[in-house]
Amino acid sequence: MDAKPKYRTKQRKILLEYLRRMPGVHITVKDVCEYLEGQGTPVGQTTVYRQLERMVDEGLVNKYIIDGIGPACFEYIADGEHDGAEVCFHCKCEKCGKLIHLHCDEMQEIQEHLLREHAFQMDPLRTVFYGVCEECM
Amino acid sequence: MDAKPKYRTKQRKILLEYLRRMPGVHITVKDVCEYLEGQGTPVGQTTVYRQLERMVDEGLVNKYIIDGIGPACFEYIADGEHDGAEVCFHCKCEKCGKLIHLHCDEMQEIQEHLLREHAFQMDPLRTVFYGVCEECM
DNA sequence: TTGCGTGCAAAGGTTTTGCATGGCA
DNA sequence: TGCCATGCAAAACCTTTGCACGCAA
Questions:
Q1: Which residues of B touch A137 (CB under 8 A)?
Q2: Structure confidence by residue, pLDDT tens digits, A58-69
Q3: CB A123 within 8 A of CB A85
Q4: Partner residue opposite B121 with nearest CB, options A121, A127, A131
Q5: Do β-strands B61-64 and A128-132 pair in parallel, antiparallel, or remain unpaired?
Q6: Global pTM?
Q7: A→B interface, C-beta within 8 Å
Q8: Cα–Cα distance measured from residue B37 to residue B34, given in angstroms and rounded to the nearest whole number
Q9: Is the Cα torsion angle B13, B14, B20, B24 positive or negative in sign?
Q10: What sign has the CA pseudo-torsion B113, B118, B119, B123?
Q11: Which domains does chain A have, with CATH numbers?
């Protein structure tokens, strides 16, 4: 848990500009590095890791650990939705690997049920439902 | 996805004996190797990985990827419950790290909802709910 | 000038793979 | 005997850490 940044570095600015262009899209550290490399504005992967982690703490970015194996995914939260306006659930198909985004109010019943009956406050940002999607059934 | 084993090797027997002694308990590959090493019946970690993966395919063992980081957990399914008699949900507290097992019929409503409304067949064995537990709230 | 941020290189930890050997049927 | 399983070593992968340098304030 790093504190908020004290300096406005060039790298952070580059990163934020890139992220803002694709709100709600899942990207990996590798994605970011390769893209910026191709743009002629490379940023070291260590810095990307550290800045993204920091942005998670700041509430600018969500971090998803979709598979146990494989890289973590980051997603810029659209400007104006920074206080969790839209909650998004994730379903991952174990067969084809597809990732499905669910925007479903009813799913919040799950959260309420867990809270009421089991005293557990579920975090939809980190929870991923694994299973089999329609096409693979 | 390996096929079922064709040979009954000594190592597989050792592994199964160990696993059967602790049904429903979460163990890592490292746990297994260290214990068997101490027992004087060492089994190579590569073999443990491969056999456990195989047992998951056979339905003898459940595999949980609890944290994105850290080793995967395996759990022997108690003899007699091999056909999913008892469904168990997992909740992981992001603060204290505690793992909570839920045996709750109501939670199956979630599965039904996902299936009916979203055509997604959730797999409770692999799905872990992340959040904050009662004590940490 | 101060000290935080950067980035290279290396370490850390888990899982997979190559390949020769050994054991089950 | 034939082929699968084993296990060592090494690779592959993602992430974190150490440390010297550079840049923002």
A1: 119, 121
A2: 999 988 887 777
A3: no
A4: A131
A5: unpaired
A6: 0.85
A7: 65, 67-69, 72, 91, 93-94, 100, 102, 104, 106-107, 109-110, 113-114, 117-123, 126-134, 137
A8: 5
A9: negative
A10: negative
A11: 1-79 (1.10.10.10), 84-137 (3.30.1490.190)
